[in-house]
């Protein structure tokens, strides 16, 4: 990545949406602009876990403003991620389809552990490098992430469904503060977080850091009232609880350092933070500058540098965990990439390198389901990928990989894919033909083989073989002819010219 490149991260949180724009300079990202809007989508989930129209509209309106600022950015310069509220929302597709068009960039709903990893990356990149073991806590609107790491490496990551918005709605719904309500909220938070004690107890780390959200708000208040700057202490939390109880309600709370957008959710946030302190034996926690959005920016850099892309490591780990036949996986991968290179010369395809990398991952994992059962292994493989914990991947990315694995063999018409997505079809076609050519689990003979694409409107791919190839490889020809028939039941056509 060239110095001077602008990068942008959009964080669709449960309480706030944020836009961070930074300039890449010698491996670091220097902020050029930061926008934050209190959207409170987490308040907009109804009893059936559907986002209300008002909550969706608030999100769309905010993203429209962010989208105007991002006009002119290329796709590879921007990444937008959504967290717990959209993980929970049953009608998230309705929101995301329109949100994508309004923002102008895809929005990835990331898994809880992936959110935790990115938070740690954001915090670690903004801290001086050291050998200390760090505990990082981020109390968001509907989830709390905990990470223990060292340097830039996150060692243990978890996400828990407890947060400032959710707890404020449940235990302080009328905005009233009472000792009884705080005790009930803290007990409930401890019940959710109790399993964290084993991995995140005080003996597992040297220094505790708090990122963003609730911890940032508490730090601001304590600093404004003379407590040590950028530190949350148990004594400070006790003092703040006393101030909240004296105010009796969020509406009557008058306290320096408290931003207006935090007033309605401070009760839930403080109760969760107090539970975290008690459970993990924390006495002092330092406020961290880095947050999820910073981790997203640094992850963008890694994604541009393929050799350091964490997703490649995750693919290798999945392949090893499920005992994939590595020689065959590498063989299919080489053939699929060769076919992709040939057909890409005829199609004006942007971002070829990224698409090639994702095709390579699908090829490496196409037999991942065989460890469960050889029968319908492609279906087992797709299920694994849809439910895998794969650091670096967003849920939509894993689902797209799962569709390639599911579709690498068998009937095409039953695939729930967009057959108008020519880029996906190109990847799928290359993978299916590669699997056919490697059916004997040995390197196929490529001499004289050509793979071409007609015009986009015709939706036709042509595989041409040299004279004598059909006689030399009759089983391959038979399988390719069956493949021609399979594609006849889709909007696309495959033609095989063999002699």
Widest beta sheet: strand line-up: 8-7-6-9-11-10
| H/I helix tally | 20
Low-confidence stretches: none
Mean pLDDT figure: 91
* Count of the domains: 3
Number of strands: 14
CATH architecture of the largest domain, please?
A: 2-Layer Sandwich
Q: Determine the strand fraction and express it as a percent band.
A: 15-25%
Shape: elongated
Category from helices, strands and their pairing: alpha/beta
CATH topology of the largest domain: Nucleotidyltransferase, domain 5
Helix content: 40-55%
Largest sheet: 6 strands, mixed
CATH class of the largest domain: Alpha Beta
**CATH level-4 homologous superfamily of the largest domain:** Exopolyphosphatase. Domain 2
How far do the termini sit from each other?
A: 47 Å
Overall description:
By secondary structure, the chain is of the alpha/beta class. It has three domains: 111 residues, ATPase, nucleotide binding domain (Nucleotidyltransferase, domain 5); 162 residues, Nucleotidyltransferase, domain 5 (2-Layer Sandwich); 142 residues, Hypothetical protein af1432 (Orthogonal Bundle), CATH 1.10.3210.10. The chain contains 20 helices and 14 strands. A six-stranded mixed beta sheet has the order 8-7-6-9-11-10, with helices on both faces. The longest helix is centred in the last third of the chain and has 19 residues.
């Amino acid at each position: 990545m060239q110095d001077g490149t602008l990068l942008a991260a959009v964080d669709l949180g449960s309480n706030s949406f944020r836009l961070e724009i930074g300039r890449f300079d010698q491996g670091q990202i220097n902020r050029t602009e930061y926008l934050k809007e209190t959207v409170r989508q987490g308040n907009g989930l109804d009893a059936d876990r559907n986002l209300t129209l008002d909550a969706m509209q608030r999100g769309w309106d905010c993203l429209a403003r962010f989208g105007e600022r991002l006009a002119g950015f290329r796709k590879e310069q921007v990444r937008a991620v959504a967290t717990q509220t959209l993980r929970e929302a049953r009608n998230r597709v309705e929101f995301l389809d329109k949100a994508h068009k309004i923002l102008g960039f895809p929005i990835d709903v990331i898994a809880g552990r992936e959110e935790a990893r990115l938070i740690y990356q954001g915090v670690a990149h903004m801290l001086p490098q050291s050998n200390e073991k760090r505990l990082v806590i981020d109390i968001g609107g509907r989830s709390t992430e905990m990470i223990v790491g060292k340097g830039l490496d996150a060692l243990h990551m978890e996400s828990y469904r407890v947060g400032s918005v959710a707890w404020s709605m449940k235990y302080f719904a009328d905005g009233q503060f009472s000792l009884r309500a705080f005790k009930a909220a803290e007990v409930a938070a401890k019940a959710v977080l109790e399993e964290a004690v084993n991995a995140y107890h005080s003996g597992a780390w040297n220094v505790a850091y708090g990122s963003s959200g609730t911890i940032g708000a508490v730090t601001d208040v304590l600093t404004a009232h003379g407590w040590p700057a950028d530190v949350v202490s148990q004594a400070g939390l006790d003092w703040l609880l006393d101030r909240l109880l004296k105010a009796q309600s969020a509406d009557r709370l008058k306290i320096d350092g408290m931003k207006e957008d935090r007033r309605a959710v401070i009760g839930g946030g403080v109760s969760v933070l107090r539970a975290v302190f008690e459970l993990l034996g924390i006495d002092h926690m330092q406020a961290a500058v880095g947050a999820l959005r910073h981790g997203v920016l640094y992850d963008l850099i890694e994604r541009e540098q393929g050799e350091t892309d964490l997703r490649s490591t995750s693919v290798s780990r999945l392949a090893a965990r499920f005992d994939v036949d590595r020689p065959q996986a590498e063989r299919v991968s080489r053939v699929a990439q060769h076919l992709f290179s040939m057909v890409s010369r005829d199609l004006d395809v942007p971002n070829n390198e990224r698409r090639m990398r994702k095709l390579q991952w699908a090829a490496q994992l196409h037999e991942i389901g065989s460890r469960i059962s050889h029968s319908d292994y492609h279906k087992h493989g797709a299920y694994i990928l849809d439910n895998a914990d794969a650091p670096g991947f967003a849920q939509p990315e894993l689902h797209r990989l799962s569709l390639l694995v599911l579709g690498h063999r068998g009937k095409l018409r039953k695939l729930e894919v967009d057959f108008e997505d020519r880029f996906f079809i190109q990847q799928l076609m290359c993978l299916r033909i590669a699997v056919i050519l490697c059916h004997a689990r040995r390197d196929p003979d490529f001499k004289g083989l050509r793979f071409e694409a007609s015009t986009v409107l015709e939706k036709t791919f042509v595989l041409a073989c040299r004279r004598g190839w059909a006689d030399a490889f009759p089983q391959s020809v038979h399988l390719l002819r069956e493949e021609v028939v399979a594609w006849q039941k889709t909007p696309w056509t495959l033609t095989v010219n063999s002699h």
